[in-house]
Amino acid sequence: MSLSAPSSSSENFTHDEIVAALTRRWPEHRVAPSLGRIVALTELLGDPHRAYPVIHVSGTNGKGSTAAMIDALLRACGLRTGRFSSPHVMSVTERITVDGESITEDRFDEIVREIEPYIELVDARQIDGVAMTFFEIITAMAYAAFADAPVDVAIVEVGMGGTWDATNVADGGVAVITPIDIDHTHLLGSTVAEIAAEKAGIIKPGAQAILAGQPIEAAQVLLERCAEVGALVQREGIEFGVLDRVPAVGGQLLRLNASEGPVSDILLPLYGLHQAANAAQALAAAEAFLGMKAINPDLVREGFATVTAPGRLEVVRRSPTVVLDAAHNPHGARAASAAVIEAFAFNPLVGVLGVMADKDARGILEVWAEVMQSVVVTQVASTSRGMPATDLGELAAEYFGAERVEVVPRLDDAIERAMTLAETDTAGGAGVLITGSVVLVGEARTLLVIDRSAEEDPEADNSPVDGRQLLDADPDDDWSPAGSVDQTEVIDEFLTGESLEGEAPAPDPFDDDDPFADNGFADNGFDDNGFDDSGDTDVDPGERDHDR
């Protein structure tokens, strides 16, 4: 698989060197629109994606959390699940889970070595003039892992778009389309309708299509695709939806419209209106997969109670409370800000903000300036794609006012400064929100969440670690590659998939947030009836309980 030379083998490489080799390939923030290479590889592997049914999830926002909820519901029903998501927050192994657990590094490496000869065969063909890409190989690895497990069902999240996404080599019996909005215009199209057409490509003949509320242009495209291929449609606000929700300790209590009537008293341990809507769609998808058979309400409650979403309004320490959220665009920031106000009511709220240079920093700042009392701007340390802290600070001053902005380039120092500012509040209502990018959130989690046992131990020392420890950490840490590969380069690879070749980063068509970039929804201008603007329904707006 061309680890360091065309003829080299992965047999003697460490996990970190294998990951670095994979990410030296055409990275996932670039796109080679063709299914030719993934089809060729999966055929050589015996078409592992045909060994189990697939639930396919696409959309602009909400894919990651919705997929995680579907996974949890089906596991509660006793099924063995596989789930593929992207990108990852801290470790590449997060992308492939079996029965709710990420595969181990050893298993990841084993899969690479098993399929390596077949990758080389496809590489040699140079299909469409391109060797196999990073994302195509990871996708094939997931499909192979699920076949080997084996699993009863795979929940597969699209990387970007749908029609030409490598995951679309599989035919999902259930196609889930989360809210669609303008994004990746240079690749997917400049209008909502064009983007919807790309994402509609996962809706296959005879499938069941579970559609979130959409802008009218997207809804029309999706419904036309369903009619074209004979897909059975379920629409948010008509066949399924949120009937009621009440904020609760650690999340929210939901009442959802299910296939055989309302299910009440569902504790979802996630915050925000957007996550409630994701839950309603996940329940509809799970019941569709089970043949429109209602899931026992107790199992529904059990499944949702186990859902986790790292980096999505995730509380990582107390006194003061520190929350991570990977909102990376204005839509995400708006949803996250509403959820923060509802769930935490911090006063003051101190922000730690870092963004990628190719993101809408002004739009993000405009949202947070209305919510944060002060902001400490910083920068992503692990990739050159991060906006310099000084540049972000100048922009922040335009929205916050210079007196509310501090510039602290090192993330560990920025977190410490924000916590100090929060601790000056003697009333105990202050909080710190670290946001702006999945990469930034991944770095913050490495600083603040040393390991799961320490996070769960109330006596553990949860104080931030010195950022210099990132490069001096134990070799078993995902962020500290061993061997001859340069550590800072491989850390950059883990988070961004950028090449080690040193080429200038292209504008990122694959958002640094995706799986879990689900806290942004379009202000799409249609009312709470989901598809009601298309004239297809006359549902009472009072039955809806979220505002996109």
Write up what this structure looks like:
With 548 residues, this protein is of the alpha/beta class. 35% of the residues lie in helices and 15% in strands. It has helices at residues 15-23, 36-44, 63-76, 105-125, 134-148, 185-188, 192-199, 216-229, 273-289, 297-305, 330-343, 361-368, 389-400, 411-423, 438-448, 452-456, 487-496; strands at 54-58, 81-84, 96-98, 101-102, 153-157, 174-177, 208-211, 232-235, 241-248, 251-258, 261-268, 312-317, 321-325, 349-353, 374-377, 405-407, 431-435. The protein has an 8-stranded mixed sheet with strand order 4-3-2-5-1-6-7-8, with helices on both faces. β7 (208-211), α8 (216-229) and β8 (232-235) form a beta-alpha-beta unit. The longest helix is centred in the first third of the chain and has 21 residues, at 105-125. The protein is globular, with a radius of gyration of 22 Å. The two termini are 44 Å apart.
Q: How much strand?
A: 15-25%
Structural class given helices, strands, pairing? Answer: alpha/beta
Straight-line distance between termini: 44 Å
Mean pLDDT: 81
Shape: globular
- If helices are DSSP runs of H or I spanning 4 or more residues, what is the number of helices? 17
Helix content: 25-40%
